[in-house]
Amino acid sequence: MTSDENASNTDAGTPAREGRGVLREHDFRSLFYSTALSRFGQEVSGLALPLVAVLSLNAGELEVGLLAAMSSVAFLLVGLPAGVWVDRLRYRHVLVLSDVIRAVILLTIPLAWWLGVLSIWQLYAVALVTGIFSVFFDVAYQSCLPHLIGRSRLVDGNASLETVRSVAQLSGPAVAGQLIAWLTAPIALALDALAMGLSALFVFRIRKPQAKPEREPGSKLFADIAEGLRFVLANPLLRAIAGSSALFNLAFSAYMAMLIFFLPREMGLGSGQMGLVFSVLGIGGLLGALAAKRVTA
After folding, report:
1. Are the C-beta atoms of 23 and 29 separated by less than 8 Å?
2. What is the distance of C-alpha 249 from the center of its chain?
3. Among 32, 54, 51, which Cα is nearest to 192's?
4. Virtual CA dihedral for 123, 171, 268, 62, nearest 10 degrees?
5. Upper half-sphere CA count for residue 296 (Cβ side, 13 Å)
6. Per-residue DSSP letter, 52
7. Neighbouring residues of 16: CB distance < 8 A, sequence distance ≥ 6
8. What are the phi and psi torsion angles at 179 (to 5°)?
């Protein structure tokens, strides 16, 4: 553990700081706003990308299914090494780089659409790259949290970030649907890129310095990954959580890909109505986030 984290843990235990909510702290508030914008942007692109394929390129079921797979395969490709790489880098650098790359790659879609050269292959590439750097962003902000607020207040911090994630799930698709209806899906992705850029600016506002993580002598990427896997698989609770998450994500990705076709073709819904349907899916997550602290206690 770094000296910064030790100091943070010591400060977190004092009565004066225990009485303050984590949102009153400048650095956590900056991370909170950054995460809110990033999550909101992910929800917008999650609906806008497949609708660009369906509405602008007349993509079929297989093509939209492959597009959904490109968004999810990033977790399979870099999910394990991302944790190791993030531990070897400064969290702020990872967060800013992830936001900037996602913003730039998303901007290529409205540009190609405006020039009349947009293709399904470009959408596949954008989905893959944004998925990869979303993995890095998620790992980095979760790893950054103990450094900013101390381990004794992780429940409060995680509950706040989970709440904003659920609010983004609840409101993001509805807003995205209206933006697509008013401005078209490619323009909605341009606004998504703007949100990613603003997220990077909030990360820049974090003041607490972080020393460059020291790499243990002789440590290797695959050895560190194997160590992490052994730790998860040896723990019955973590093993169950990992298996449950994998099965849920597999089924949910297939479900969402099918909805993109079912709602407009069978139900006759427009993009605004589709956004409202997707938003309803976030209600349960929001209620769970709001109850997390009480349930944990």
Report:
1. yes
2. 14
3. 51
4. 30
5. 12
6. I
7. none
8. -60, -40
Q: Which residue has the tokens 């607490």?
A: 208
Can you spell out the DSSP letters for 53-122?
IIIIH---HHHHHHHHHHHHHHHHHHHHHHHHHHHTS-HHHHHHHHHHHHHHHHHHHHHHHHHT---HHH
- List C-alpha distances in Å: 221 to 1, 98, 176, 225, 227: 20, 20, 39, 6, 10
pLDDT tens digits along 187-227: 888 888 998 999 889 888 887 776 666 666 556 767 777 77
pLDDT digit string, tens, across residues 271-293: 778 888 877 776 776 677 677 77
The number of residues in the chain equals 297
pLDDT tens-place string over residues 16-34: 344 347 777 778 888 888 8
